[in-house]
Queue: 2 jobs
Job 1
Amino acid sequence: MSTDPGTPPPQDNRTFQRVLIFFVLILAVMVAIVVATLSNLNRSIATSDWVNHTHALITELDALQPSLAAAEGDLSRYLLTADPRDHSAYQEKFADLGERVAVITALIANAPGEQQQFTPIASLLARRAELASRIANLKKAGDSAALQQLLGDETIRSEQRDLQRRVEKMRETQTSLLTERDRASFQQAQTTRWTALGGVVFEFLLLCGAAWLIRDDLAMRRQAARLLEQTNEQLEAKVRQRTAELTASNEKLVTQNLEDRWAKQALEHQNRYNLLIIDSISDAVFVVTKLMNVSRMNPAAVHLTGCEPATLIDKPIAAFLRLEATAGSATPGFDPLVRTLIEGHELRQQAALLTNKSGATIPCRLNVFPLRDRDKVVGGVVVLQALSSS
Amino acid sequence: MPVALVRLPTVTTAPFHSLFWPRRVLLWLWILASGVAIPAGLEAVTLSELTDNPKLSPKKFASYFSSFAYEFNAPIQSPSAFLQREKGDCDDYSVLADYVLGRNHYTTRLVHVRLAGRVAHAVCYINESKAYLDYNNRAVFFTLTRSGSELREIANKVAASLEASWTTASEFTYSYETRRKTMITTVSKTGGPEEGPPSATNHPSAFNVD
């Protein structure tokens, strides 16, 4: 269950990467929108410049004939009045006309088709200016006949009509161009609008996607947290249960331990009491195994034999004790003491001889009692009563 | 202005730190700006005063017109009429600047900028200053507007100052004697790169009638 808190889980990394991808996409779309919008804007400005250009050209074309008429009107007035102010006036008007021609020439500088249309118009206007100069010079010279002849020239009127027709035609061309450029300008504006709107919608969708991803991740985290909480609760319940069980077991063990201690104490007490009983008997008492080996002896036995228990324990009792009836037997037979235990009956008031530590033989009265455990002889108790005081 | 002159002695006798109080600082700035912007004489300046002043700079020239009013005139006014009436338009101002500064050894260019849907605007470009004089800026501190010397650059700058789009721009000359405007070169905004200005004398206009 141990986890490293320094390294985030893989799910966290995946979510972070997805959100990062979404935001990178949003940024990329934003940059694309800005670039597209700026590009559209530049094209729109260029188109707008062309619309202004065409408007300016139409305005100048429209002003050509009125300017010419005004200049020629001032010239006619000068011919009538010979006033220097009228002289200056028509000169200025013709200069204005020249300026308009220069402006139109500049406006159509890169349009061969329009230049082709305007060149005859400019020539016609230049000829009218030249004619004006000739008329003014004739007036200054006072040559009325030549002046009248020049003014009555029919070519002037035909040129005027030609000029009007050509200007009208060029104007029509420019008007159609204006319509076309205006449409292009409108389309540019529409493109810009749709680019911006489309970009905003796409950005919104991307943001929604990012929000959905974050929401999904949060829901998953909440679910994981709930699961963790539930698991924790279950674990805590199990821990509580186990703790309760352990507490109960502990209490039981404590009680059992106490009871065991008490039982042990009682057993020890009983054992000591039993030993005390045995030890307090004035007759020598030997507890023997089924094979008649000494397993315990009381102080009276120690006194009688003169041996410490350590020297006699686990030793066969036959080593220092024999029945008197078998004492003189040259052929040793089956030990009656052993037979007693095998057969499981008591042996009472038998004369026996005990050899003590110093080697002296002490006549004794012997009693053997088998020790039974559930009807099975597991050993015996040999009680010796010394017959003499020595 | 009189208030400033009355208070000046008080300022000089005041402790040193009092000179730097905000009000005092503003007063000093006002006096300084007034000295730069307002010409010496309060009466109408004459053409001879302008042309006979060898130290006349474009900025000094502009300072004489700060109080002039705007009045649109189709024909260009004579210098005396413009200076006496103290009313005029961009053409009057630019042509006079061209005339006066040209006599003071400045290289000047008259530029006519035609704007979409508006009256055309004229300025006088001074090569030495790399800036142009504009009648619209006659009453502001920066009477000279810096610009590149190309006709398109000047037209862009002028149109931007008027928040408008320009269509064509012309460089021209004007003679008070003949009262004639002579176009030198004209460029359009949508046209190609500007060509070098052709000499007006080499290409006399067909429309300069006798």
Job 2
Amino acid sequence: MKYLLLVCTDPDHTPGQDDGAPDVEDWVKEMDANGTRLLGSRTRPASDATTVRVRHREVLLTDGPYAETKDLMAGFDVLECADLDEAIEVASKHPMAWAGAIELRPFWGDEE
Amino acid sequence: MTTAQLSERIGRIYADGWSRIVATMIRFTGGDWDLAEECAQEAFAQALVTWPTSGVPDQPLAWLTTTARRRAIDRRRRASTEAAKLRQVAMREEVAMDAGPPPSPRDRDIPDERLELMFTCCHPALNLDAQVALTLRSLAGLTTAEIAKAFLVPERTMGQRLFRAKQKVAHAGIPFRVPPAHLLPERLPAVLHVLYLLFNEGYSGPERARLCVEALRLARVLAELMPDEPEVLGMLALMLLHDARRPARHDADGGLVTLEDQDRSRWDHARIAEGAALCERALRRRRPGPFQLQAAIAACHATVPSVAATDWPQIVGLYGELARLAPSPVVELNRAVAVGMAEGPEAGLALVEAITSTGRLDGYHLLPAVRADLLRRAGRGPEAVESYRAALSLAPTEAERQFLRGRLEGC
């Protein structure tokens, strides 16, 4: 199954909570090597975002993110995992699971 | 066999067999929970039609499983769109069936996947309400209407909750399996939590006693399937020890009777002996946990002939250990009660004051209730009255308010 791993920052994060967190470079290396991580990247902050809407056939642009929350998303990865337990294991090794939060979203899939 | 005997026999087979068949069918259908349940349901419906004339087969579980599988295959044949993996499973089965009459399967050859089912229903990626609902439907075999009634929500709401839970299992890829050993320490507590929550819900009143029965039944299954997990044995022991006292917990008017005032001759002593023995068996493994310690405390209360004979210093020690393993202000409060009995009310009061000053039990009626009791026993009547009144204003149930009013009058 494919999962979108959404890397999120935690505005309430207090330094020190993530002591002993794994290194992100090591995480990428490990997950690339075992074939779990298909692609991924950090994303630029909300101030660099552009939101696109089409209304009445007109393209409307907004400078900034769609969601009100500032800079919640810091990056993403696409994983190929056997099941949710495997995806949870991969997510829990990501340093941002320690310093922020990771949201796992299964791909819609093609069975329906 | 009379009709009454037959329907009782089928009822027993349903109670013991439902989860076995559902679990097998979930595997068979490649994770289609709805189809699995529908086919299991139809197999039992078929049994109710066939068995009164044919008699109950020698291997009822195998009969039901075979019937459920055939139903699943029939349905897939009829369905125009099929998932490829389901088609494959069905084809393998058809080949086997077309090759002549299948060798008659025996009950003991039917795979037991109830443990897989328990861990899937109680997967922490599901919210607690969903875990509880799935457990009652798939493992205990309660209907949606029965579950809705037990949790005082409309049937429609419960139906949606079950639907969403099954969708999440399928869409999020929650595996149908017993977690590997390294995940057990974090996953087993979720299963225990759900079963104990069911038990507690059922313990809250006689009209919900069904939940206690189902929780106990599932706890027995879990203990049978995981005999080496001391916390599983501990939880079953705790349930048995509490359940044994149930007949004495309420008086004729439905009022609450506290442990010290309960008529001990009305306790189920066989059940107490079973619980106490299980608790000892668990503790001998030297991997204590919160359930084992609570069971040990319950055993201390249940195995003595009178309140006066209670070994309070032993209970104080057990609460101390429990507070170390699973610290919580409620455990501290219970320890204060035990200390009050073992060392006198003033010693208990000192602990209660310490809990009060943390503010962590503000609004919890048992805090002033315990304080009131200790003050009363210390001969500090006016202060006790004040605390009983505070408890009375916070108590959530009429039975408890009635009990507190009684105490207040005695002051």
